[in-house]
Amino acid sequence: MSEANQTINTSSVSDTTAAIRQLQLGVSAKPRTLLGDAWRRFRRHTLAMVGTGILIFLTLAVTVGAWWYERYLVDQLAQSGIPVTAENPDIRVLIDHLDFLALLSPPTHVHPFGTDDLGRDLLARCIYGGRISLAVGFVAMLIAISLGTIIGAAAGFFGGMVDQVLMRLTDLFLSLPSVPLILLTVYLFREPVIQAIGSPEAGIFVIVVTVIGALAWMQTARVVRATFLSLKEKEFVEAARCLGISQTAIMFRHILPNAISPIIVAATLEIGSAIIAESTLSFLGVGFPPDTPTWGRLVTDGSQYLQAAPWLALIPGALIFLTVLSINFMGDGLRDALDPRSRL
Amino acid sequence: MDACLFSAMLCRAPTSGAGIAIQCMAGVTVFSIIREVMQQTNARNALYARSFGRFLNVSERIDTTMRSMRNVWRKSGALALLLILIVPVLAACGGQPAAAPTTAPAAQPTVAPTTPPAAQPTVAPTEAPAAQPTVAPTTPPVAQRGGRLKILYWQAVTTLNPHLATGTKDFDGATVILEPLARYNEKDELVPFLAAEIPTIENGGVAPDGTSVTWKLKPGLKWSDGSDFTVDDIIFTWQYCADPATACTTKAVFDPIEKVEKVDDTTVKIIWKEPNANPYISFVGPNGMILQKKQFEKCIGAAASTDAACQAANLAPIGTNAWKLKEFKPGDVVIYERNPFFRDADNVFFDEVEIKGGGDAASAARAVCEKEEVDFAWNLQVPKAVLEPILATGKCDPIAGGSSGVERIVVNFSNPDPALGDKRSEPDQPHPFLTDPAVRKAISLAIDRKAIAEQLYGPTGQPTCNVLVAPAAVNSPNLTCERDVEAAKKLLEDAGWKLKGSVREKEIGGKTVKLVVSFQTSINPLRQSTQAIIKSNLAEIGIQVNVKAIDASVFFSGDPGNPDTLNKFYADLQMYTNGPNNADPQQYLQGWICEERASAANQWKRSNDGRYCNPEYDKLFEQLKKELDPKKRAELAIKMNDLLVTDGAVIPLINRQTPNAKVKALKGPTFNTFDSDIWNIASWSK
Fold first, then answer.
1. Shortest Cα distance from B575 to chain A (angstroms)?
2. Which residues contact A291 (CB under 8 A, 6 or more apart)?
3. CA gyration radius for chain A?
4. Which of A271, A291, B88, B415 has the fewest other C-beta atoms within 10 Å?
5. pLDDT digits (tens, 9 = 90+) for B452-479
6. Which residues of B touch A187 (CB under 8 A)?
7. Residue of A nearest to B385 (CA)
8. Rounded distance between C-alpha atoms, residue A35 and residue A29, angstroms
9. pTM of the model
10. d(Cα B193, Cα B679) in Å, to the nearest integer?
11. How far apart are alpha carbons A335 and A262 in whole angstroms?
């Protein structure tokens, strides 16, 4: 009896203290933040949450999952298949392992995604390819976003000649047909870059990522410029200027945080388009070396077997589709979440 | 606004504002769809015109690969959308009686113009609407002469001068225009073409001591420009290629000639430098096609490929065969039209011939066997898992037999290290590790030919240990090439290549050399799969393979300006198919003598692309040149084959019997071991 009273008393006491604190501060006990609000709104966006979930799952699958799958596959192959001879095989060895006992096999417990014409395990190849495709997407996005933000910020903030020159440059890049240009660039610079870097795979990664990133910054630049143009006339910028804050600081510490939402949205969309661009390059045979199974390359190789073994093209195709779709949903959700006008 | 007018016209009297709005929307959408489809088609065609070099090839590849799917989708998609959009238009018209009849004609013309250019961009302007060709074959009337023979090569023709050709596609492209004195048929027998008969010892044409051969020509031969075909043209063709500066790729067949003499207007005598066992080496088969003196007179020497007029001539030679050139886009398409001066013009069935290049082997097979878009597709080198279901459609006949060459790995004896700059892959730069016979033999021992043959080639190839397999008399019975991984490892171990991690290495001259090889071939799923098997095989013995795949139209182009050709061979190993092109193997075996080594000095046009040089082999070759007795020649040829293989100069993999395919209605194509697959094209009919 007395215990129950005790509890009631304590809770009412803590309630009272919270209420008093609120009265003293004039704000709620748990202050709302910009990011907190965004997260709250983001959580309500079901599709965006699903997209984020899928993306996290895929990222985990190609990193942590690979580690687990390596052992599973080696075990399975030892039981029913041609065993792997190498010691401590990693995923790089497994993607080239030929299992002649399961050629063009549909998904089974040994090969959950099936095998190709040489008995190579499709899931292992999808995992390895996923690493490359996702890495290409993220790195190309970083390049595109950095370039776009810097150029857009400079054009919007300084205006005048700088703006003119930078925007005409943007127009120029926008008018270039990107796929032929990428093909040409990769063709011309592939060898020198591979030599400079040493490994064909790393060399091609660098050039593919650079080329894709360097041809995708224009939209971001335009958006950032527009945001800067409107923000630089705002009172807080004037105030900062009056206080004698340097231009760089105004640009990057005062205006940029306010322009972050369109940039984040552009960034998510950019990942999707970079993955698609890489797939296109691999499909055309100018991307990674033919034995590197990126998702795009897997679709190319599998497209030969659409009749005999449709899963060879459909599964990696579905992975590209799923990734890009998830990223786009996430971008959609972020756009809604970060929009200050919809703040509740 | 046009769109609104269009919609308004569709149902004459729109009743309400809403009706107009709906129509307008529908109309605009229909128009934009049509415009987009047309723009896509135009853009693609424009792209062809503007593109250059590799990009052209790439875009073509995509084009042909996806054409089928895209067309179907585009057609059906456009139709479906049109239907969906026309329904509201009709609905808005409120079921007026006039609606139905007026819609039908309006809808048709909008669909029709968009489809034919999409289906056959190059054919469209000269041909009837797309609907007709697909209907025609289903109602076979009396065989009607004329029409266009459509041939698909997944490697595009790049030159029509066979003596500067680098791949089968160039020889075949020239075959439609030019002719030699005689050609081989499917039974490896000679058939006279420009010649009246095949010279033999019996009919006195061939000198018994092997010093000369005398050919009699058919009377009254004419070039396609109407001028007379004379013995001088034959003499000229020899002079043209005899000059080393011309850099004929066919030079080997002219080398034995001392002199070509005119006996009378229709008789020509070839005198050999030394007694020649193969009197049919020159002016026979794909390497012997005769050029017109008038056209190429000024093109002897370096001018052949540098002079503008000669370059133009290389792309448009005047010939004697059933067709002459109508249009040629190098790297894309060749269109030929009737040659009215052809000796047998009345019996030529087709008005025009088109050889379209690009795409890949599987889509070529589908184009014949599933869609029947083309009549004949060449070289269906595709994995058996792909080929078998395509052939099973029953709409086409595969044409296979003989030997279409040996798929082999060529070993680079020169150093392709990019650090060497201009000296890269030059014969005087020895390869750091492939010059070690142990490495070459270990590679050969480690490769699982049986798996490659069974898993990938199926009925289209058998494993072979020989680089010379046809004719049967010279197919060496001496060699075995069973896979032996342990022996391969031991060979490397004994030669001082020690395993470190997963790759073997050895200290040579103070530098650590690692067994990391680059392995290139053309883009072809079958070859990429072969690369994967070999990569895995070699990994087992501690050799790391970096594979590289090059667009076939670049790899086989022989273009001296392109680094990725098989002739330059900027890699350690490369894989492709080759074989003798006449029943006598001498010319083929010439491809490994020191003198034939490809280098910048000869514009990379000589046939010894591995830069192999072995005095012992050269000595055997000299003997072969002198030997007249067919039996002893065969023995020598076998000996040379054995030397090449045991020395690891070349690693034979598969004896290929690659099928071509033709639509059922096409009559005439045969397989051919030593000549072009379209050797008898003038007699084809449908």
1. 15
2. A96, B528, B531, B532, B535, B547
3. 26
4. B88
5. 998 888 878 889 999 998 887 888 999 9
6. 54-55
7. A308
8. 17
9. 0.67
10. 10
11. 7
